[in-house]
Amino acid sequence: MNMLASIPGAMDAVITGTTLAQASAPAPMAASQLAHYLFVSAALFAIGLIGFLTRRNLIIMFLCTELMFQAAGVALIAFSRFHLNMTGQTFVIFILTVAAAEAAMALALVVLLFRRRESLNAEEFSEMKG
Amino acid sequence: MGCRVSVHGVSGFLLFLSPAGLMGIDAFINPYLFYGAVVLGGLGICMALPRGGKTAQIVRAVVAALAGALVMLGLGAKSVASLPNIYFYIFSAIGLGAALRVISHPRPVYAALYFILTVLSSAGLFLLLSAEFMAMALIIVYAGAILITYLFVIMLATQAPTEDRPEELAEYDTVAREPVAATTAGFVLLAVLTTLAFNGVSTLNPPPPGTPDSVLVQIPRKVERVLRGYQLIQKDEKVEGFNRVSGDGVTAIESVVIKNADGKTREIAKEAWPEELRVRNVEQLGLNLLQDHPGSIEIAGVILLMAMLGAVVLSRRQVQIDEDAKRRQSQTLAQTVAEPAGQGGTSGGAA
């Protein structure tokens, strides 16, 4: 708490931050706050990408694509809040739709492939001869 | 032609590296601090990825966390006047840490559970951004539905431990593929994304103060119901319309016009409205979804339907019973159902 008090402005953040939900007419958000959220979104996307490239388990590769969907959602909602425009939130609904459809199809394929080779290794399927 | 394009690309890249290209990022964070932290984070994540051996991955993950904290401190130092909510730091730390565990945990079940943690903390970020409905929808759809499907498939598609090898992790789970190259690619992407995003954000103008109340014009029935609930209008009175004032390019509602059965009108000024008479996040979102994107909803429905059909068709197991087994089974069935068994058995076998 002492460390927070030494940073000007941090105490205000603590005090105003006692409630999670905000009023129905939110105040305009500063561009620097948008930058904070965009960095978190970019970091989440980068972590998802690294996971997709490095992991060799098919299921975890799909989990990493879901991580990247999350990153896109955070960026969309941050922009929606910054511009006070609901379209960003509406598009997160469509992201959820696509994610659900992708999960259903991908997992059906994974089950099918697992029955064929008894393995989830992505490199097992590098030659698809049927 | 191709040569000219590449020359153009190189000059664009040099411009990107030049101080003019870094002006935008400098508005939010010291560029040297930022790129140093990105390299540090890349090193940490690269070492935290599973390598097969029993290494102290926690120590390396701490390096990555330190890099994230450095970026946050650098971001905060430039914008002390308008720091984000304290919960932002908590949720983003939990979310990024759990995401790191998703990609570094050798066991798929734990990776999926950590992903639920990431979903929950990004729902927290949505709450901070006053998107309450999307936060709850994210928890229900992601943590409740999609991740449970993932867990089921993980449990279906893993070899059960046998007597001689009790719990052995598969080799493809414990050894990462090309960790150095992938981490380099990921963190170059992070640096470029953040630089470009900060460049763009520094040119954005904050919007005029919003007047979400103007959506109330589109939902007069709710206004009537709320006013009636607070007994501000009588039984024979109806909401007739709204008085609006416009200034600075913004239209705001001033009062609601009430009309009674005799045709007389009166107004209730905004100051006298009850607290409940305001537009909620769900109402705004619903109006936006149904008024501005009606076609997209149809397309989303078709996508979901096709995904469902595809999943059913793909995962249907084709049971192959040979002809003898089929005949034997139909005979036993016929014997149990009806006493004169001979004809039933042969006809069932022929079918």
Layout of SSEs?
The complex is a heterodimer of chains A (130) and B (351).
Chain A: H1 2-6, H2 10-16, H3 31-54, H4 58-83, H5 87-117
Helix pairs in contact in A: 3-4, 4-5
Chain B: H1 2-17, H2 23-26, H3 31-48, H4 57-78, H5 86-104, H6 108-128, H7 132-156, H8 171-174, H9 179-201, H10 220-229, E1 238-247, E2 250-259, E3 265-269, H11 281-292, H12 294-315, H13 323-337, H14 341-350
Antiparallel strand pairs in B: 1-2, 2-3
Helix pairs in contact in B: 3-4, 3-9, 4-5, 5-6, 6-7, 13-14
* Order of H and E elements of chain A: HHHHH
CATH class of chain A: Mainly Alpha
Strand tally of chain B:
3
- The average pLDDT of chain A is 80
Q: For the largest beta sheet of chain B, what order do the strands appear in spatially?
A: 1-2-3
In CATH, the topology of chain A is named Helix Hairpins
How many domains is the backbone of chain A divided into?
1
Low-pLDDT stretches of chain B: 344-351
Helical segment count of chain A: 5
Can you walk through the features of this model?
The complex is a heterodimer of chains A (130) and B (351). Chain A has 130 residues and is mainly alpha-helical. Chain A has a single domain, classed as Orthogonal Bundle (Helix Hairpins), CATH 1.10.287.3510. Chain A contains five helices and no strands. The longest helix of chain A has 31 residues, at 87-117. Chain A is elongated and about 55 Å long. Chain B has 351 residues and is mainly alpha-helical. Chain B folds into three domains: 9-201, Four Helix Bundle (Hemerythrin (Met), subunit A); 212-279, no CATH class; 284-315. Chain B has a three-stranded antiparallel β-sheet, covered by helices on one side. The longest helix of chain B has 25 residues, at 132-156. Classes of the chains: A mainly alpha (130), B mainly alpha (351). Chains A and B meet through α2, α3, α4 and α5 of A and α4, α5, α6, α7 and α9 of B.
